[in-house]
UniProtKB/TrEMBL annotation:
This is 4-aminobutyrate aminotransferase. Keywords: Aminotransferase, Pyridoxal phosphate, Transferase. Its EC number is 2.6.1.19. Gene3D superfamilies: Aspartate Aminotransferase, domain 1, Type I PLP-dependent aspartate aminotransferase-like (Major domain). NCBIfam families: GABAtrnsam. InterPro entries: 4NH2But_aminotransferase_bac (IPR004632), Aminotrans_3 (IPR005814), Aminotrans_3_PPA_site (IPR049704), Class-III_PLP-dep_AT (IPR050103), PyrdxlP-dep_Trfase (IPR015424), PyrdxlP-dep_Trfase_major (IPR015421), PyrdxlP-dep_Trfase_small (IPR015422). The keyword Transferase applies.
């Protein structure tokens, strides 16, 4: 019997001795319990959580409705494999997601366990439906760590190094970002250049896009870009696939981030916030695309587990009843207002951006966009941890602070966390480090 451990350092030593080095840890602490927007480690220290398990617990840690749903399901059955013996919660969840997904057309859905699995299956659907093989994605994109989702991912370190060769016929175009000097015209022109120089349009099955790039730096796609992307796909018979794995389930102030633009994708991939901490992902989209293959073409042993389906239905109840889309928008306004005020004091804050609660701060030396400052972002993360705040960074240069609070965070806790960020940046500036 393993003796109880109450020391982060001892647990971390055991972790290094037994867990592969390729599994990272953003913070050297171990959770003992969590509630809503707070986590307590094994030493009893409290942390404000601005990470939400990478935008997973949108409804907060251990939301009572989600916990109750899982506890109620567990004694009934925990697994049958839906493809062997079906259960109503899977059907009810599919019905509900089809109603929520944008667009007036008939829709169907199915479930997997991870976001990467959802992406892999969306690729299969696009290829099967169109009879084409090529896929276009974007520089800076993140779609997962399995081989096809990794091939779509537009960032080498730390994800792709040493794992090639990757599956073929994956092409990357520029993603628009005003602060990085890439306009909507530039991004569309880069796709047109691919179609002229690298792959004919008649071979492209789909374009995969994050309506807000996640790992790429929390960069919202301009609505004009998404509209022009939709038109380009329609022109050439390509499918438009929206990767809403991080942006979905109220994270951006709407159930789906694509709703901000009015653009309706052919397929949507979901995960993260859908399960409230239980592993579940989804592909939802046009019924004619979803129904193109015979039974057995899709599925997985654990996909859409009864526990996860119960949790997801409870999550959707909470999103609706607690009006988390509106609350996400208000959280985002508070975040960006505070960060804009900080930017007036500190030139190192070169950009503040976001959609709903999905908000980012990008650091540059002296505000010069050609001089990214990952050391400032990393110093902020490390010092905030000491003061009881959990943060994460992202971006192609690692110089972006991304904020992913639970959408249920009390506003006094939100302000407490923002005060820590402000005090750390003030102190770094006083030390000449920002």
């Amino acid at each position: 019997m393993t003796k109880p451990v109450s020391c982060n350092a001892e647990l971390m030593a055991r972790r290094h001795a037994s867990i592969a080095r390729g599994i990272g840890n953003a913070h050297p602490v171990f959770a003992a319990k969590a509630l809503n927007s707070e986590i307590w480690d094994v030493e009893g220290k409290r942390y404000i959580d601005f990470c939400a398990g990478i935008a997973v617990v949108n409804t907060g840690h251990c939301h009572p409705r989600v916990v109750e749903a899982v506890v109620a399901q567990a004694p009934l059955f925990t697994h049958t494999c839906f493809q062997v013996v079906a259960y109503e919660s899977y059907v009810a969840l599919a019905e509900r997601i089809c109603r929520l997904a944008p667009g007036p057309h008939p829709k169907k859905a199915f479930f997997m366990s991870t976001g990467a699995e959802a992406v892999e299956n969306a690729i299969k659907l696009a290829r099967a439906y169109t009879g084409r093989s090529a896929i276009i994605a974007f520089n800076g994109a993140f779609h997962g760590r399995t081989m096809y989702s990794l091939a779509l991912t537009g960032k080498v370190e730390p994800y792709k190094t040493g794992f090639g060769p990757f599956p073929g016929e994956i092409y990357h175009a520029a993603y628009p970002s005003a602060v990085h000097g890439i306009s909507v015209d530039d991004a569309i022109a880069s796709i047109e250049k691919l179609l002229k120089n690298d792959v004919e349009a008649a071979r492209v099955a789909a374009v995969f896009v994050e309506p807000v790039q996640g790992e790429g730096g929390y960069i919202p796609a301009p609505p004009e870009f998404l509209r022009r992307l939709r038109a380009l796909c329609d022109q050439h018979g390509m499918l438009l696939v929206a990767d809403e794995i991080q942006t979905g389930v109220a994270r951006t102030g709407k159930m789906f981030a694509m709703e901000h633009s009015g653009v309706v994708p052919d397929l949507i991939t979901m995960a993260k916030g859908l399960g409230g901490g239980m592993p579940i992902s989804a592909v939802v989209g046009r019924a004619d695309v979803m129904d193109h293959r015979a039974p057995g073409a899709f599925g997985s042993t654990y996909a859409g587990s009864p526990l996860a389906c119960a949790a997801a239905l409870a999550v959707l109840d909470v999103v609706e009843q607690e009006q988390l889309c509106a609350r996400s928008a208000e959280i985002g306004e508070r975040l960006r207002s505070t960060f804009h005020d900080l930017a007036k004091k500190h030139a190192c804050i070169g950009d503040v951006r976001g959609l709903g609660a999905m908000t980012a701060v990008e650091f540059f030396h002296g505000g010069d966009a050609s001089r990214p400052a990952p050391e400032i972002a990393n110093a902020l993360k490390a010092e905030a941890l000491k003061r009881g705040l959990l943060l994460l960074t992202c971006g192609n240069n690692g110089n972006v602070l991304r904020v992913m609070t639970p959408l249920t965070i009390p506003f006094d806790v939100l302000e407490e966390g923002l005060a820590i960020i402000g005090s750390v940046i003030d102190d770094l500036a006083a030390q000449g480090k920002a």
